[in-house]
Amino acid sequence: MEKMARVTTALGSNTISGCTMFCHLDAPANAISVCRDAAQVVVAGRNIFKIYALEEEQFVEKLNLRVGRKPSLNFSCADVMWHQMDENLLATAATNGAVVTWNLGKPSRNKQDQLFTEHKRTVNKVCFHPTEVHMLLSGSQDGYMKCFDLRKKESVSTFSGQSESVRDVQFSIRDYFTFAASFENGNVQLWDIRRPDRYERMFTAHNGPVFCCDWHPEDRGWLATGGRDKMVKVWDITTNRAKEIHCVQTIASVARVKWRPERKYHLATCSMMVDHNIYVWDVRRPFIPFATFEEHKDVTTGIVWRHLHDPGFLLSGSKDSTLYQHKFKDASRPVDKANPEGLCFGLFGDLAFAAKESLISGGGDSNRKPYGSGGDRRYPIFFFKKPDLTEQFAHESSALSVFETDLESSRMDWFVKTARRYLLSGKPFGELCDHNAKVAKELNRPQVSTTWTMLRVMYSDPGNLATATSISKGGSIPLMNSFNMKEIAAGGLGSESRLDRGKGEIWQDTIHLDPGNSLINNNDENEETEGSEGPADYLFGDAELEDDNLYPMEHENPTAEEAEYSLPQEAFPLRHEIVDNPSVPEHLQDKVDSPHVSGNEAEAVCLTPIKSFSLISISQPLYESHLPASFFSPVVREMLQHYAEAGDVQMAVSVLIVLGDRIRKEEHWYTSYIDLLQRFELWNVSNEVIKLSTSSAINCLNQTSTTLHINCSNCKRPMSNKGWICDRCHQCASICAVCHHVVKGLFVWCQGCSHGGHLEHIMNWLKSSSHCPAGCGHLCEYT
C-alpha cells in the first residue's frame, strides 16, 4: 500500500516521465497488460511469456514465466490480464482452452497458481473484476462465458450466449454486477453476474463479428465496440434501448479498442490485418484520426495505456516481435496534412465548395454574391466551431460557397426514356443499331446517334450492301465486289457517265486481277502503251488480224458501220518504246485516294483507239471487303472508355450488350448501370441487362433474395412445407378472401392482417370497401 500511495502521489505531481522506446522480443506478441503502478508490463504470445520493467529510456527484462524442460500448451497465450488490485496476480487465456492464473509472489521458478480446464475450445479473453480480487471472467470460442472464484477449484457460474464464439468480455468499471460480451454474429450482450440463466440486454452492434469492447472509465453508460465491418461504435446503454451516439469509420477490421485516460472523447484502436498503425480518435470528429503511431512493421496485436490516470503514454505489442512505448507528444497528427478544401454535389445538382476564409477572401472576387441573400437558407454561408477547452484539433474557419444549377438542365428524363426505348436483343445487329440511333436522335443526342450508326457500318456484313457502284464525276471508288470503267473521249470522263450496266447488248472484256493487284495479264502480242497522249498504235500478226473478237467495240451510233483498220501506205512506222509491267494498279490506287479523275489519268488506262469505246469489268475487289471484328476493337474500346469516363455508363453498357462477343466486357460498368436503373425504379430494364450479360458475376445478381417466407393466414405461423397446405393447422394457406378458392397465380396479401387473395379480386373489393374481405376488421389498403 505504501508503494501504491507513492505512485499515486507521483502521478499527481506529473513525475512519471519517459520517451518513445522499444525492445525486440523473442517471438510475436498476442497480448500485453500493465500492472497498476505502471512500472512493469507483461507480454504474452504463442512462444513468449515475459515481464519487462519500464525504465526511463529502455525496457528491462525482469522475469521469464515459460519455465520447464517441456513447456505445455498452457504457456501458449491468446490473452493476458494483470490484476489491478493485486500486483502479484496474473491470468492468461490459453489456446488449448485452459484458463491459468499466475502468482508472482511464489518463491519457486514456476509461478503457475491455478488451472481451469472447463472450456472445450480456445479461450479468447480473460478479465478480472475491477474491485473484486478473487473474481475472474473468461470468454471462449465454444460460446460460453465462465466466472471463476479464485478461492475455489472450479467455476461458480456459466453464461451461455446462445450464439457463436465469444470474442471479448469486459466488467463494467462503474457497475459492480454488470459485464459485456461481444460475439461473432455481431451481437453484444449485457449480463448480470447474479443471473447466469439469461442476459439482461442484447443488441446488434455490427455487421459481422464484434472483436472487442471497452467500457468508458468515467461515463458508466458508454460502451465502445469494434468489429470486422471496420467500424468503431460508441453506445449509450442507459436508455431503454441501446443507442449509437458515435461512429468512427476505419480502414481495416478493428481488433482492439481502449479509451484514453483523462480524455472523455478519445479512444485508441488497432487493426487485425492490413493496417499496422495505431490510431487515437476523437469520436466527435470521426473522419480523421486525432493522432497516429506508425512505428510497427506488422499487425499490432495489443494496446494498453500505461496508467489509468496518465494519457501521455501508450504501450503496444505486435507480430513484428517488438514492444513499444509511445509518447503521445511524438505522435503524428494527420489533420496537419489534411486537405483544407471540400467539394460536394447536392441532391438537386447544386455544387458546394468549402475552403479557408483566407483563400476565398484573397481571391478578390468582388462580384461574388453571398449565397442565401435571396432568402434561400438551405445552406449556411459560414460555419465556425467555437473553441472548446478539451478540443485539441486545430481550429479553422471555413467559407462555404454554393453554386446553384438550373434544374431543367440537370434532369435525367433522357436516361429513363433511353433505358425504356432502347432495344438490346431480339433483332439483327443492324436493326438494333438503327433503332437505337433513331431513339438517341429523337432525344436530341446526336453524338450518341452517330455512334450507333458508325457501329452498324463497322460491324455489319458488307454483302448486304449494293454489289455494284459506278465512278462518276466527283465520286470515289467505294467498297464493292465489282466496278466498271468506260473510256469516253479525249477529254477524259465527261459530265455524263456512259456506263450502261443495265444493257445486255454491251460487250465486256473481262480482265481478272491477281492477288498482287496486277490489272492486266501481260503477253507479247498485246501490250499497253503507258503515258501516251496520242492514239495508241498496235502491231498485229497475220493471224491476229482475222480475229474479229479481239477488241469488241460499241459506237455512240449503233447504226453506223464500224471503222476498219488498214495498214499505212508507206510501210510500217517504227515502234515506240514499250514499257514492261505498266503500273496500272498505281493509277487505280490514285483514283481511290482522290475522288476527282482528270482527263489525262483517264487516258492512262485506255486500251483502245480514241475513236472507240472499251469496257473493263473487274470481278475481284481491290481489297478485302470484310474486315474482322478485332480490326475495330481498339477504336470501339476507346469510344466506350470515353463514354464511361464522361458518366454515360448507359451508352457503354448498351453497346457492350449489342456487340455481344465482338468485344471484351467490363463488369464494373454493368454494376454501375444496374445501380442507376434500380435507383430510377426501372426494375424490368435492370433485369434485362442482368440476363443479357455474359459475366457470371452479373448474371447471379437477379438470383439473390428470391426466396419469400410467408406465414399461414389461418394460424399465423411460418410455412415450412412446400405446397398449399400448412403442416400445423392443415388448412390451405393461399385461399382468396373474396372467392374462397385456392390462389394459383398472382397472390396479394395485406402485411397487417396477412389476409389476401387474387390480385383482381382484392383490387375490386378495396374499390368499394376499406375493410378486410376476410372479416377480421382490419383496414386494408392497396397501393
From TrEMBL:
WD repeats lie at residues 116-158, 203-245. Signal peptide: none annotated. InterPro entries: WD40/YVTN_repeat-like_dom_sf, WD40_repeat_CS, WD40_repeat_dom_sf, WD40_rpt, WDR24. Keywords: Autophagy, Lysosome, Membrane, Metal-binding, Repeat, Transferase, Ubl conjugation pathway, WD repeat, Zinc, Zinc-finger. It catalyses: S-ubiquitinyl-[E2 ubiquitin-conjugating enzyme]-L-cysteine + [acceptor protein]-L-lysine = [E2 ubiquitin-conjugating enzyme]-L-cysteine + N(6)-ubiquitinyl-[acceptor protein]-L-lysine. The keyword Transferase applies. Gene3D superfamilies: YVTN repeat-like/Quinoprotein amine dehydrogenase. Pathway: Protein modification; protein ubiquitination. One of its GO terms (cellular component) is cytosol. The keyword Metal-binding applies. GO terms for molecular function: ubiquitin protein ligase activity; zinc ion binding. GO terms for biological process: autophagy; cellular response to amino acid starvation; positive regulation of macroautophagy; positive regulation of TORC1 signaling. It is found in: Lysosome membrane. Its main location: membrane. Catalytic component of the GATOR2 complex, a multiprotein complex that acts as an activator of the amino acid-sensing branch of the mTORC1 signaling pathway. The GATOR2 complex indirectly activates mTORC1 through the inhibition of the GATOR1 subcomplex. GATOR2 probably acts as an E3 ubiquitin-protein ligase toward GATOR1. In the presence of abundant amino acids, the GATOR2 complex mediates ubiquitination of the NPRL2 core component of the GATOR1 complex, leading to GATOR1 inactivation. In the absence of amino acids, GATOR2 is inhibited, activating the GATOR1 complex. Belongs to the WD repeat WDR24 family. This is GATOR2 complex protein WDR24. It comes from Acipenser ruthenus (Sterlet sturgeon).
